[in-house]
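Researcher: Quick one. two chains, 494 residues in total.
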Amino acid sequence: MSETMIENINLSKQEEEQREKPSLEDRPIVICARDIVKSFGERLILKGISVNVHHGEVLVVIGPSGCGKSTLLRCLNGLEPIDSGEIELDGELLTKPGTNWNLVRQKIGMVFQNYELFPHLNVMDNILLGPIKVQKRKKTEAKQKASAWLERVGLLDRADSYPRELSGGQKQRVAIVRALTMAPEVMLFDEVTASLDPEMVREVLDVMLSLASQGLTMVIVTHEMGFAKAVADKIIFMDEGHIVENAPPDVFFNNPETSRAKKFLNMFEFKGIKKV
Amino acid sequence: MDLDFAIKCIPLFWAAGKLTVTLAFFGIILSLVIGFICAVLQYYRIPFLKQLAGIYIELARNTPLMVQLFFLFFGLPRLGILIPGKTCAIIGLAFLGGAYMAEAFRGGFSAVGKTQLEAGLSLGLSRLQLLRYVIFPQALAVSLPVISASTIFLMKETSVFSIVALPDLMYLAKDLLKEGHSIESNLMLVISYLVIILPVSLFFAYLERRARFAGFGS
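Model:
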């Protein structure tokens, strides 16, 4: 992604924010996580993570591989049960016995690194499975909504295609639409461009940028630093199961507080490195 | 070889073949149901029932059908349980086949990646919906070759039904053999089994091709 593109995106986003804002911190909290601890066997992955996601906020989680950022995302929609701590959605405690996670997950959409479209269903049926079977919506109405979304991401003409006939970027856009047609309150994106060729990364990120500018609440785990800078309202930098920094993107990228974050960000810098 | 005799025997073989097909049909349908249930119990690791399914599978797979039929037809009456021959045959075939089908489905289920389940769960699908709409269709495509092989194997296994005094193809052939028509009865027996089993084979080959063309796993 070129710098000017990012600046443009940044500018338009800032303009929009200035227009609509009450500040993020004043908006209601959609997801509240307190002291999340999670281990796999002996290995402690999350060592007491606390984070709030406000309505309309785009929270970007970055950090080195294995720092626990994907696990955090998976804990938020109950794909991984946590060892201790609390998670609330719209003020309702989820981490208690008797929580209907099927219901919760309809409000928390998730997109995965490897798309995870259902290979035996075509694009339209992939998208309609949730609205029709889970939410019991009428087929015609659901189909209309699905078509509108597909058109928005430029894939209406692929509605009858099977996943194997699509490129990676197309698959990921379908996966995003599949999650969106459930009309979730918040979307979780788990390294959704990590399996894509560089030229396909952009088409997926564009979709996400447009969702962000529409005010969708999003939690994004990514390694795309330029994108993180452009899309985020808040950056969380994780390392070894802790949140090391929690700051707005301009502060984090220009003035990281910790040496750990500085070191991490330097890995993406190639200025001053010359081929010998 | 007495061709006229062979031709005269056709109605007899037709009747015997019908019995073989009927018994095989119900036995195999039941074995698919049993196999599916066992595979689901094992897949979802339902305590106790999972172990029970495991014990059943080992018991059924590691004893011959003839021994199972002997137990049903000659053993159970000793305990006061009388089961008619046809029912014995169907139960026996389903008992044996259930274990093979369970293994076939198990293979298919385990081929569906964990991440596919997570994708389904994150759409809010219940476990039952997940099974119905995500796991089963994908598993079936993977299981199909094993289901096909097991079906053909079970159809051939019906040839031991004659030991519980059922007038099936094998029984008829043995009867004719006793009358001194060994070549004719053998020939008709081979033809009868071919006529019954070959179309089933071809049908499964067609289904497998269809499933392969669906191109799952991408």
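The two ends of chain A are 27 Å apart (CA to CA).
Researcher: Thanks, that's what I needed.
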